[in-house]
Amino acid sequence: MNKGCTFYFVRHGQTYFNHYRKIQGWSNTPLTEEGAEDVYRSARGLADVKFDAVYTSDLSRTVQTASIILEENKHADELTIEMMPEFREVFFGSFEGEDVDKAWAAINKELKYPSVAEMYAQSSIPERMNATKKADPHNDAEDFLTFWTRIEEGLMKLISKHRDTGEKILVVAHGNTIRYLLNNLVAELENPQPLLNASVSVATYRDGAYHLEKYNEVRHFKDIE
């Protein structure tokens, strides 16, 4: 039987744009004090997990989060962070830095649902991403195909390197990146909820298939005793 490999996907801690409810995407803002503390709590709960490799996007909030996780980990002496732009968040084009509610109201004008709440309830992820590109006056926002091609290329690099090794791989990335990735790879995950900051989602890859073990998990958070 193949050993497969296991991915620990961790969303970064709360940033100032998260706190201010602004569209973040490729924009860089640091973790808030609360965000860093949540990462420390998550890291303490993962301290006994022996990771074999660590990857992040090339955005500062994921690198900051991964650094805290390694700081708290008991087996991380030989590990270094490898940044991969493939795992960036969705790019929202000229909506970057915009108020979340204003941005989605503008995007919903393309989809024409009675409200933003109904848009979220009734539209698919690809529909919303494609509408974001259409609504962007500069047409710079990523549509779903562009985004998916990018993150799939990143994942295939990891599969090529770690498949059938039995290794545990830490990937610190972004809420939409992790959620959309797992939504398309894991058959049993339907309409996944948005991810909490510093949450952990675990998926195994074996014999060409992905299996979800945990999603949006925060029960492992551990305070200082």
From TrEMBL:
GO cellular component: cytosol
InterPro entries, alphabetized: His_Pase_superF_clade-1, His_PPase_superfam, Phosphoglycerate_Mutase
Positions contributing to substrate binding: 11-18, 61, 175-176
Site (Transition state stabilizer): 174
Keywords of the record: Hydrolase
Active-site residues, as the UniProt record annotates them: 12, 89
Listed CDD domains: HP_PGM_like
GO biological process: negative regulation of glycolytic process; regulation of pentose-phosphate shunt
One Pfam family matching this protein: His_Phos_1
GO terms, molecular function: fructose-2,6-bisphosphate 2-phosphatase activity
Coiled-coil features, chain-numbered ranges: none
PANTHER family (alphabetical): FRUCTOSE-2,6-BISPHOSPHATASE TIGAR
Protein's name according to its UniProt entry: Probable phosphoglycerate mutase
Record organism: Desemzia incerta
Phylogenetic placement of the source organism: Bacteria, Bacillati, Bacillota, Bacilli, Lactobacillales
